[in-house]
Design goal:
This protein is mostly helical and about 120 residues long. Helices cover about 80% and strands about 0% of the residues.
């Protein structure tokens, strides 16, 4: 996926695919208990997703991906006892709530995540 993106950096679909690959790697590292490697993979995914959102802020799917990156980073930081996790929970909530407020598509599952995030943020992360 990295070679594909390098061969044609303008292909947003390949960039998104690469971000998903990094996210899945982070999930594996997290499940194995390697929180440092998980955080690194999630940060790589986040970097791509931030660029995609900057290129087209109206894409609800890219906004949602961004909130998932924030969510994953928050979860890893929380597992490792890092107090900055609450800031990342807030970011995940803000992005997902923003999608809904702008009237962009939000699924029933996302509604549930949004409610969960709202409770998480109100309780201080």
């Amino acid at each position: 996926a990295e070679k594909l993106v390098q061969s044609d950096p303008q292909r947003a679909d390949w960039q998104r695919d690469l971000s998903v690959s990094y996210e899945k790697m982070g999930d594996v590292f997290s499940a194995q208990g390697d929180l440092g490697a998980a955080l690194s993979a999630y940060q790589q995914s986040l970097g791509i997703r931030e660029k995609l959102v900057q290129s087209d802020p109206q894409r609800a799917d890219w906004q949602r991906d961004l909130s998932v990156s924030y969510w994953r980073i928050a979860a890893v930081l929380e597992k490792s006892g890092d107090v900055s996790a609450s800031r990342w929970w807030q970011k995940a909530y803000s992005v997902l709530a923003g999608i809904k407020q702008r009237g962009l598509f939000i699924s029933a599952e996302d509604e549930q995540w949004l409610a969960w995030l709202e409770k998480k943020v109100k309780n201080g992360g």
